[in-house]
Amino acid sequence: MMQTAVYRILAGALTIALIACASVAASDPLLLDSREIVTKFGSELQAELKQGLAHGGPAGAISVCKDKAPQIASDLSRRSGAKVRRTSLRYRNPANAPEPWEDEVLRQFELSSSTTDSTSPPEYFAIADDGSARYMTMIRMGPVCLACHGESLAPELAAKIDAEYPHDRARGYAVGDVRGAFSVSWPAPGAEAER
After folding, report:
1. What interhelical angle do 29-63 and 69-80 show, nearest 10?
2. pTM
3. What is the mean pLDDT of residues 57-69?
4. Is residue 53 a part of any domain in this protein?
């Protein structure tokens, strides 16, 4: 049975239980490592996106999300021993479709998003009896993201996205919406992470 604790880092420090809840110390090493990993993922991806936007505008950002983001996730997975990725309920790349547990957490993030401080996204952290662990933190839509994920896209950009992602579901967002989440899955001690 999964022991689950959900931490929402808010001004009011609200805590929500997604499944049967057992308290996990805020200093749990896997929780701290997960936070560090997604911080690295976010900062590396943001740097790549800024560079892509500077050199190719929104079209340059598409190649970053398509090629660079999976490489960053792969590098972090290899270095940490965890499975690191991005996921969303409305994904652009089918490879980023959520696993069932991620789907549940993403739905909880969406339910709680109207009461969540946009500067401190909610987190999810759970440790199973076998020692494996799962972590997610929400990704919110920022203003710069609207060029590729907003309600109306420039026709040439929409055509490029359609060519790269024929089954795109990642449009129609507004600033502050839940875009998706960073996800980290730790294997049980002695097991290897599925990548």
Report:
1. 160
2. 0.83
3. 91
4. yes
Q: What are phi and psi of 91, to 5 degrees?
A: -85, 155
Classify burial at 129, counting beta carbons within 10 Å of its beta carbon; exposed 0-12, middle 13-18, buried 19 or more.
exposed
- Helix H or strand E segment including 101: helix 100-112
Give the DSSP H/E element, type plus range, for residue 38. Answer: helix 29-63
Q: To 10 degrees, what angle do helices 155-164 and 29-63 make?
A: 120
Bridge partner residues of 85 (DSSP) = 183
Q: If you search the block for the tokens 């909880």, which residue do you land on? A: 108
Residue 192 inside a domain? The answer is no
* pLDDT tens track for 133-163: 999 999 999 998 999 999 999 999 999 999 9
Please choose, from the candidates 16, 27, 20, 45, the residue with its C-alpha nearest in 3D space to the C-alpha of residue 123.
16
| Cα–Cα distance, 186 to 23 (Å, whole number) | 18
DSSP code, position 8: B
66 φ, ψ to 5°?
-75, -40
**AA identity, residue 11:** A
Sign of CA dihedral 73, 112, 50, 166: positive
Identify whether 194 is part of a domain. Answer: no
> Is pLDDT above 80 for 17?
no
For residue 15, what pLDDT band results from cuts at 50, 70 and 90? very low
Q: Which domain holds residue 158?
A: 2-186
